[in-house]
Amino acid sequence: MIEYPTRAEDDPKRKAVDFLQWSMECCGIENGPEDWANIGIAQYAFELPMSCCYNPNEKNHYGRCTTTGSPQPFKKPCVQATKDNFRLYGGLISGIAIAIAVVQLIAACFACMLANAVIF
């Protein structure tokens, strides 16, 4: 976050921060939008990166993203948004992984049976 203001708009690291904040509807790391004010750059005391309010790739938004204006910035910190997504999708991903492992185990058993049938 500290390097965000010094990077060009097309820098991959800056784009990654923007994509994360917009896609997960979060702003800041642990304390929400206040994190931007705490990095010590006067610009972010009241004004936030556009990705805290808008899709950073769209150019049809109006105004700026501020802590007090409209539209309101995303309030959820990105750490909390990440944890929420892991809770939400963790069971689904685990279930799919277990199902794939079971299919692979069954396939390995059939391969062993086929190998024994061919040899004898």
From TrEMBL:
Transmembrane segments: 92-119
Lineage of the species this protein comes from: Eukaryota, Metazoa, Ecdysozoa, Arthropoda, Chelicerata
Gene Ontology CC entries for this record: membrane
Name of the protein: Tetraspannin-like protein
Cytoplasm listed as a keyword: no
Pfam families: Tetraspanin (PF00335)
UniProt key word Transmembrane: yes
Subcellular location: Membrane
Principal cellular location given in the protein's record: membrane
